[in-house]
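Hello forum,

I keep getting stuck at the same step: I have a sequence, I want structure tokens, and every attempt I make locally crashes halfway through. Rather than fight my setup again tonight, could one of you with a working pipeline run this one for me? It's a single chain of 221 residues.
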Amino acid sequence: TPADPIRDFMVQRNMEVLEEYDPASNPFATKIFINGTWVGVHQDPKHLVSLVQDLRRKSIISHEVSLVRDIRDREFKIFSDAGRVMRPLFAVEQEDKPETGAVKGTLVLNKEHIRRLEADQNLNPADEDYFGWDSLQQGGVIEYLDAEEEETAMICMSPEDLDEYREAKKRPKQSEEDHHQEKLERLNDDATDLNARVKPKVNTDINMYTHCEIHPSMLLG
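Reply #2:
Ran it on my machine without issues. Output:
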């Protein structure tokens, strides 16, 4: 993906280009990097990152563009160059959307998407009504992440784990004794199934998951 249109877009979104930046007047601005080159700074990185992520989910910019925000170092890095290994993940809603009924912390994937995919079984990929993988990607259901962006993502291992996390966040914090009892019950349940996946304790200290594995085996590529 060409870098120049991305740079032009950033300038339109109030990015201060590097040639005009005065560090003394604004030492806490977030640096913007495109393919490793420092091109400017921005005063409101949270809004900017959210905006660009939304554009990627709507396929206005390519799904192959990587967006990495390093809050500690105050850097926002955008990569559009070739040669980056990427893999698909389910996207997770980051806020409630009353207009669509989407709930914060749930998969962007919904029953309508699944219904369309089931209908694809009776269609030819060349048909106009065919939904398919590309439509999931263009609808923001699936996002491709490279190794750099994965470092800043919180990835849940399965949709079931994501549901458990949401339910656990709603409950009052467990005492140590209750947690120990729950762990014993889970171990007893798993003992009956030798092929059961070993599941870690739900960590409610995590603020929010951003993505979810399509299947745990996809960690291997």
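The chain has two domains: 1-83, 85-221. If your local run keeps crashing, start a new thread with the error log.
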